[in-house]
Amino acid sequence: MFYLSVAPCLRERMAWGKRGGTLPGMMEWSQPHELAPAEVRRRLDRFLDGLMRTTFPAGVKLRHPHAAWNEDRLEFRFRLERGFLGADFHGEITVQDHQLHLRCQVPALLGMLVGEDKVKTFVTRNLNELLDPAATPDTEVR
Description:
It is a single chain. The termini are far apart. The chain has a single domain, classed as 2-Layer Sandwich (Alpha-D-Glucose-1,6-Bisphosphate, Chain A, domain 4). The chain is globular and about 40 Å long. The protein is α+β, with helices and mostly antiparallel strands. Helix content is 39%, strand content 32%. The protein has helices at 2-18, 37-53, 108-113, 116-131, and strands at residues 26-32, 61-70, 73-82, 85-95, 99-105. The protein has a five-stranded antiparallel sheet. The longest helix has 17 residues, at 2-18. The relative contact order is 0.18.
């Protein structure tokens, strides 16, 4: 019977995509940069490696990390867990010559517990540091 309660939600998500809209909880950023695309990819790899090893506050754990490059697009996913609660987080980062584009699905649970504004602040701060030409390429997750 569980599938019956999920089906309307899935239909709504499919309808959003067909209308050309953005799914609820979908966040997008475009960030200009002055780095070579290969350097951006290298910094992203190091950043994600660091993110996977980060100790998060309040007992939140990052589980089942996965990241893979497909030409200029990095697809990633992981699960955030705290106790018996968990939420899947996934997205993609596209690296272009002078711009980086990030698109990710923020789980409703994460948005409710942490707040989308804090997620945006975290992502924006780390992207700015990551793409700063004067910064060391080994920027830590903050």
